[in-house]
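Fig. S4 source data, part A: sequence.
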Amino acid sequence: MVIGASNVRECPKCEGIWTDTETLRQICADREKQAAVLGMPTHLPSNEGVELEKQIRYLPCPVCGDLMNRVNFANFSNVIVDVCREHGTWFDRDELRRIVEFIRAGGMDQARAREIQNLEADRRLARADQFLGGQGAAPMFDDTMRHSGVSAVAELLLGLLR
């Protein structure tokens, strides 16, 4: 199968798609290649496939044979893809189309904004911890609370009240 000038491998049995890392980068960045993906036939109604997979399975990389990591694309797209860091990404049937729809709906911009917020929260937490001489609030908070917008000031006050 060809998307733009990029070759991708399609499994005729399950209709999954394998892309190497560079091809996926190009699809994410190039609207013409995205249009080609959106033009591919789809087998799912648009409201299906929104839930995260319930049956967890790990697939081997078609290049090296090692088991791939399951990743929620962009950390919140609700599309779980199988990734071999060295060789590429496996998309089950219609997942690549769903990823392109996510990108076109501004999902990558939202993912970047979330990442920046999380990094800022981590930076504030590190400053509070440094201020408290390494005995700071970090042990009191798990990652969920750290990234939920709890300010460093609140963490500092809780650490002092401890």
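Fig. S4 source data, part B ends here. The beta strands are 2-3, 6-7, 9-10, 17-20, 69-72, 80-84, 88-91.
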